[in-house]
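Two proteins, back to back. First:
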Amino acid sequence: MKRIALLAVMGFLFLSGNAFAAKNEVAISYVKSPFNLQMIVMKEHGLLEKELAPLGVSVSWPEINSGSKQAQAMASGDLDICGVMNSTSLLMAASEGMPIKIIAGVARPTDVFALMGRKGGPASIKELRGKTIAGPKGTVLHQLLVAALATEGMTLKDVQFLQMDIPQSFAAMQGGKVDAALLAANMVIKAEEEGAAKIATATGLVVPKLAMMGSDSFIKNHPDRLKAAIAAHDKAWQWITENHDEAIALGAKIQGISIEDAERLFEWSYFTQRFNQSDIESMKDDMQFLLDNDMMRKTVDVSTLIIPEAME
């Protein structure tokens, strides 16, 4: 009996210890791509750790780039904050009942996302009919492709769209296995250097809106930690604006690209710290687009997906 009682107590202490540890840690995804300079600075300079230190809270940084995987991790409680997620992924997650909200703005990188045609292949949207295109489904790039095709009276039925992540899409286009690829950031630059044609960017077709997201439970139960996360995000941007060259050099180092390419990506990214009413209206347009193209099943109240602190 004593042995059983001891094991029971040990089990309770173990579980309590885990619960205590979980309560005293913030899990935030480290999303470096396409070129999330605020996130890179926040992580590499330990800014969130400094903001949470007075609360006795530590930080973990799982690397999860996929918006859908971040949403799943947040729904399961394994993630408190999505470091960067696009609003397209947010809308699709919200329509499936995942409790996620925008807590800060990140960027409106219209020039970072592009539809590229392989060297010697299609160089215009019209030339894509019947061609094979690779890219990540259920993302802003997917939305870009549908919007681009629509300008020439086409739909996804007029092309062969293969699900691949961005590095795989780039490799498939390099190897001549697909005619075009949906790429972002440094992959766009590399493709151009290798002779690929830039068929379209998001500019004029869709406005990608990148944001930092928090789970409902994190927002409701930990307002002090939420405040710390927003403060760290803002301090990262302040440091970037005051130390531009050093920030670009850090981004280049972490991304493994040249200073020149990092500067181009910075200029393409159109960083922001807060959303505005135009972003909300744009998200409503995005939602209708997603519904019309069977990329989203149910409508959501867009105004409920962003906390007041995230607005200008």
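And the second protein:
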Amino acid sequence: MAKEKQIAIKEAEITNNCPECFNQQLKLTFYQKHTFNPFFHRTTDVVTHEIKCKKCYSIIYPVNWTDDIERVFDYYNKLVKPDQPAVRFTTLFFFLLILFLGLVAAGFYLKMEGII
């Protein structure tokens, strides 16, 4: 079963007013989706974001954004450099691949010798 994780790639403290409590401590976080399973780790190109107030702990959705929050978000969105989408195979994958190739080679050898 594959596990999905949102790994933070950029965090920024912004001083815009919270639409809920009017506090000036907001945290903007960008996440990139990573998928893990026993055979490989995949980095996807899916990037999400979240703005959270540090006082009332409410998530500020784009519907509630002010013009100032939008400008700051656009600025930080340009600065985000996500990891390249990639697939990294695990040691288990390579072990099973070598075992399978060895079994196929042994079977082919035995077939050529006429033992099977």
